[in-house]
Amino acid sequence: MATTSSQIPVPAPLRLAGNVAGDWKRFRGQWINYAKAVKLASEEADCQAAVFLACIGPDAYELFETFEFASDEDRSDLTKIMDAFEAHCVGVVNVVRTIRILPALSGEWRIVRYVSVGCTSADFLRFRSDGRLRRPRPHRHGHP
After folding, report:
1. Beta bridge partners of 127
2. Does residue 13 contact residue 57 with C-beta atoms inside 8 Å?
3. What element of type H or E holds 80?
4. pTM of the predicted model, to two decimals?
5. Residue 134: pLDDT band by 50, 70, 90 thresholds?
6. Residue 39 CB contacts under 8 Å (≥ 6 apart), including other chains
7. Around Cβ 144, how many Cβ atoms within 10 Å?
8. CA 111 vs CA 66, 107, 108, 116, 119: distances in Å
9. 61-100, pLDDT tens digit by residue?
10. Label partner for 116 (CA 20 to 30 A): which of 17, 33, 36, 54?
11. How far apart are CA 144 and CA 140, in angstroms?
12. Rounded Cα–Cα distance for residues 45 and 74 (Å)
């Protein structure tokens, strides 16, 4: 590492209480800036991972020890380590959509929220730019 690295402060340790996703995003951004500033990319991959693990703090290091990786080499791969923290701290983001459903028998419009994780039938519906559901087109003779 460059000799100026001692003048560049390391990121504050990763906090695992409260807004974990927000704290991870803050730490990740600070880490990326720190790694650029000290020219960490010029170091060996296992050295990069070791510096990252030294910066995350004791609580996050204990969490790292619980992560399962495909191989022992992955435990020294900075990209895989950061992906594991990303999955743990941010997780899967739920997609929430508000759509209008065709009028009920009473004639009132209902608004229903579809919360989908991953890929569900709500993901295959066609939506307008204003978030409303597009009406299906009628089928022509022999054409879907």
Report:
1. 133
2. yes
3. helix 78-89
4. 0.61
5. low
6. 1, 2
7. 5
8. 42, 13, 10, 16, 21
9. 999 999 999 999 999 999 999 999 999 998 855 555 555 5
10. 17
11. 7
12. 11
Nearest to 99, CA basis, from 82, 75, 115 = 115
CB atoms within 10 A of CB 49: 20
Instruction: Give residue 7's pLDDT.
Output: 86
65: its two tokens: 């020890």
| 41-58 pLDDT tens trace | 999 999 999 999 999 999
Place of tokens 């065709």: 102
Q: How far apart are CA 36 and CA 5, in angstroms?
A: 10
Amino acid at the residue 32: I
**Per-residue tokens: 26:** 């803050």
- Phi (first) and psi of residue 62, to 5 degrees: -60, -40
Q: Helix, strand or coil for residue 86?
A: helix
